[in-house]
User: What shape does this take?
Amino acid sequence: MGKQPLVGILVGSESDLDVMRATTSTLDELKITHELRVASAHRTPALVRSYAEEAEGRGIKVVICAAGMAAHLAGAVGAATDLPVIGVPMPGGVADGLDALLSTVQMPAGVPVATVAVGKAGARNAALLAARILALNDEVLRRRLRTLRDEMAAAVEAQNAERT
Ligand code: RP5
Assistant: This one.
């Protein structure tokens, strides 16, 4: 039996998986347990509803939802759980992700969705934001996040050193 997942990832389609590897690899890097399911607000609404309703009871702490085009997944999940929900708008569609960005970010008052950038940058940041939420109660994870931030700064400094 696998370890209890702390982060649940829902993707609207298998076609989102390439982008969402940036989320799973970042969670792996931070040693955060996670699970991933394909579930669509449009194609499998009952599956989305039951996943959202059961997630907290199953020990999930944060749900990350990736969807493109008319991206209702994160909002639909947020409507059925009190867990923090992070939405990742997928590129593609008629406006290459701007459609999904607006669909995800423009939640009416009452159901929050923390929306990150479109595509791979957002997919990585979704994992980092989930990690920051989990780190509120996890000192070891907080140190891992600090190390990651220090490494990022060091990499930029090394690039500048090469220029001088
Ligand atoms: C959304 O529609 C999915 O999240 C995906 O980004 C987009 C297109 O899905 P496919 O037609 O490629 O399955 O629901």
